[in-house]
Amino acid sequence: MKKIGMVMSLGVLFIAGCSSRSIPTIGDSMVTHGDESRLIGEKWNKGEEDIQEGEGLIEKGKQMVKEGQDNIKKGEKLIREGKQLQQESEREYQDKYPEQKLLKPE
């Protein structure tokens, strides 16, 4: 009975290996030892999948943070430029129309 389980495990391992990765993982090796270690190997493989997914999410998050920081810098630059334009406009207006008083909102 153990031979049948081992043959089935090897078959599953072969199919899984062909479809997703070329080198067997530690978990794959555990799975081939028989039914008793199959669950341990599957657990290890799930851990590997979680690690890969986690690393991908971290990289994606880092990229999002970088983009956010770039947006903050662009926004701050636009605000500085906008305030400068407003100040220049107020000065030009006062120079051109000295008798007029600008009402600034509070």
From TrEMBL:
Residues 84-106 are annotated as: Disordered. This is Lipoprotein.
